[in-house]
Amino acid sequence: MTAQNQLYLDLSRYYDQFCSDIDYAEQSEFAQRAWQCFSNSGGRAFLDLACGTGQLLKLMEDKGFSISGLDNSQEMLDQTAKRCPDATLLLSDLAEFERHHEYDLITSFLYSMHYSHPLAAFQQTLCKAYQALKPGGAFVFDAVDKNGIANDTGVVSELALDAEHLTFRSRWFYSGQGDVLDLFLSITRESNHETQTWDDHHRMTAITIPNIKQLMQQAGFETTILERDYARLSEWDGKSSNVIMVGTKPLLEV
Ligand SMILES: C[S@@+](CC[C@H](N)C(=O)[O-])C[C@H]1O[C@@H](n2cnc3c(N)ncnc32)[C@H](O)[C@@H]1O
Question: Which residue, judged by its Cα, is nearest atom 13 of ligand 1?
Answer without folding.
Answer: 50
